[in-house]
Task: structure prediction
Amino acid sequence: GRFDPEGSLTRAMVTTVLWRREGSPAPAAPSGFSDVPSGEWYTDAVAWAKETGVVKGLTETSFGPDEYITREQLATMLFRFSSTAPVSVPERADLSPFSDDEKVSDWADEPLEWAVEAGLIKGTDGNRLAPDGFATREQFAAIIERYDNTFILKYNRPVLRSHYTEKEYPLVTDADFYVSPDGSDGNDGSFERPFATWNRAIEAVRGVEKTPEKGGITVAFKAGSYRGVHVEFTSEDAGTPKCPVVYCKYGDGDVVFDNGVTVPEGAFVPLDEEDKALFAEKKRDMIRKVDLYRYMDEIPEFSDFSLFSGDSLCTVARYPNKFPDGTDHLLSCARYNDDDSLLITQIQLRRKLSEYPEELIPQTVLYGFIYRGYRKDFYTASSYDADAGVLYVAGGNMRPGWAGMDGMGIEMCVMNIPAELDEEGEYWVNRDTGALYVYDPKGDYRIPGASGEKALRGDPYDAGDGRAMVPEYVMIDARDTGHVTFRGLDFRNASGAFIFAYKTSGITIDRCSFAYSTGRNHALFEYSRDGEPMDLTITDSEFDCSIGCAVYVLDVSDGPERYTNISNVTVDNCLFSRTNLEYDVEGALDLYCCTKGHVTHNEFRDCHRYALMFDFSCDVVVEYNNFDSAMTSSADGGVLRTAMGMDSNALVRYNLVTDTGNGYAQYSDLEDCGTTDLCNLFYKGGDIMIAGGGRDNSVIGNVFLNGGGVTVQSHIPEILQLGEAARNEWPVSHRVNTWNRILGYCDTVPGYREELEARRPGASSFSFDFLNPDDPNFFLAPVTVVKDNTFINKAKDYPVSSKSEEFLTEENNKVYGIDENPYFINPTIGDYRMREDADCPYIPFEKIGRY
Result:
């Protein structure tokens, strides 16, 4: 129960902290030190540290686990640890300004020079290094924090532009109407007498004639917080190309639209005796509760309820808990019972559900995958068989699966179980009493959407599996409207989406921010307005902490308008962070069935699944983006994902893709045709997978650093081995039919053949004869070119492979070891700055990232 901040560090303590930081890897063999017995808490850590060179021992046979560690010994151990990570700095500090520099041992000179230069170790009182002084536990905690938060970020990312600087906001002095938190809807909307609500401002805009002479209409919001926001835009509220409508902030300060509630840390109180009976005995003293009815009139349904603490999404008390890396630990379940109406889980809980009050059973929820690797959702428990240890869930809650995937397993965990409230950041809600219980609450807590209003449903778009894509709760509901700009506004805590736009054109999102929503999407744009392109522009904006996708754009279908209706979607200089926190489906940014998209100079950080997804889309250009840490909790797909683009003509160039998590850097799947990866840097595991059998894809002039390669994998051999009936059941068949319909328009829609041939020469002659795949016009002919790429890796491997060699053309690819690479100073120790003599004309490092 004590941390002992001023206590001295032992050698075993330091070794164990570094070992845990690396994920507690299993050592290959015992340490061999006579004073490190088996079965101790530090045994594996010491063996790992010796194996990796982090420690060498006091002698060949002794380690000294209980000996206190000096500051120079600690610097040396960290220096060796950095070199193996690898993380290091090229410069060395001058120690002469310290008053006791002469006391530094010869063997510790370079480690201490390195540690001081990196900012890990600083002088003590009297400007002393105190190299022979014992390091304390609190000093080591501070050093580790500096290591992670400053040191790595400063030196160990490939060279990018300077840090993003927020653009100066234009001063608004001549708005037509003003809104203020202390205004009144009985006012006239002038600067002196502003409105109180957005809805009143919309009403006022309707009364203004939108003529070219007017030139535009501006509504300015004064700084402050606006609550309970739900606004609806219709065709009456549209601007025109020559008279757009702008909703923006006025002057300094933030304009915040907040539909949630904040529960302060001080509101939580200890459990009373009645509460304690619900929770595991050993954990009760760490749990605090608060009455939610003090803050809201109604507790949202489980699937709509989310709790955020700081920038983190809290976890519902569950069994089993997540894995140490934060990914879901899910257990296999049975499918149906005999009458095909109930889903049965065979999860054996540590504490039987029958021990809980019977009235709490309906609050228990299952959460996980219906089909492994694709969709996750919530399912409400209906009853519990204590004798069998089986939990029943109404089968009607299950969503229909994807064709061809019925044989895949179901994986779930059981959630909202009070006795499993046993880890920091977890919570449990008793919906009968309105009590929220949190394990060791720290800081304030936010609940999105608690004060939001319900939006009209309209005509929901059916996604094909019974899901209505229109969210029930939105802040901005725009239908059949256009030429409206939202500028400089902050949106927080929505239940559902912040924006739902249906059949719109000319919508602009500029310098806005969106954070914390329980909807499947932060912002959802579906279809362009009849007779107009979508013309959606999103610039200089930030999207943070989304349960699912941050921005989802769906436009054209596969009908005759495929080439005549142009979407024109631009996403420029935006930040997408912490996305897909709960839903494991779309990307942070998802362009679906869009024609002409430009995604440039954006930054994507900590995306739990795809960062960018563009399926069935045409002419998408993705350039100068920084993708950092995606696919962190999913292994199905890649940081960038394009699929079903039989006429995609996508261009992915001049991007930096780092830390690809569990997936690929790019995943081209399901008959993707015409995607070109040109001059990108794929760093730390940046593989490209071209799967499923597309054609005319290219990987040219890219640099793969510290792992990463290209794999071409076609399904054609498997298709050819199937009988005719089985081939018709192959998952690709419905997309073949889609492409057949597209070709059918060539003979029925005037000018369609010419449009198609202009985009993809020869496409109107494509063959679908699976028995003749050697036909050069076979639509799945996997013609993939991999040339002029540079592979830099420790093993000096040549990581280009193909399931069938005839499907791949390779030219002029080069392979280097880490130390002999032509571009970077010293990747072996983590120095990825460009060499002065580097000749890398393909990748414009100075232009990658946000402006």
The first strand starts at residue 177 and ends at 179. The radius of gyration is 30 Å.
